[in-house]
Design goal:
- This protein is an alpha+beta fold.
- It has one domain: STM4215-like.
- The protein has a five-stranded mixed beta sheet, with helices on one face.
- A hairpin with a 2-residue loop joins β4 and β5.
- The longest helix is centred in the N-terminal third of the chain and has 16 residues.
Length: 177
Amino acid sequence: MNNYFGQLYLDLCEYLKTVVPELRWIDQDFGQLEHFEVRPEVSFPCCLIDFVSASYSGLSNLAQIGEVVVNIRLGFAPFSQSYHAAPMNVKEKALEFYDVEQKVYEALQGWSPVKDNDNYTQPFYRQSAMTEQRDGDRIGLRVRVLSFGTQFEDNTAKGIYRKVAKPPLQFDETQIQ
């Protein structure tokens, strides 16, 4: 893979499936939890990855520093009750999604993938965690979103100089005095 986002996605998938085996579906986020007829076509709990933003600042020689925000959407199917009068074992089952979220956070906080014996991105750091509001969700999915930040240096354009074709100078000798 010769591009940052593709390589990062592949490395994230491989790493998360190893360190958080509870995740049964890891994929790019294409709206799987929003666009479905009866039930989303994923296995739960699922992890959907998206690079939601990247901003760049310039360095010398066409290189840039990229600041990237990576969203990790964790989707959970409802399967237990957590109301105050429910038996403790039922409530604990209902709150297991927090355990999965914690494992994902612990796995990614400070994580930096390696390619060719080099860390090609700065260590991840959590920026936020939130419950997604799901108005109109007919099946009652629980979706938690963890946002992580990282930085990388993109010097792939470095050394690629483009010559701009200049039109030849034309003189009108009748105008020269």
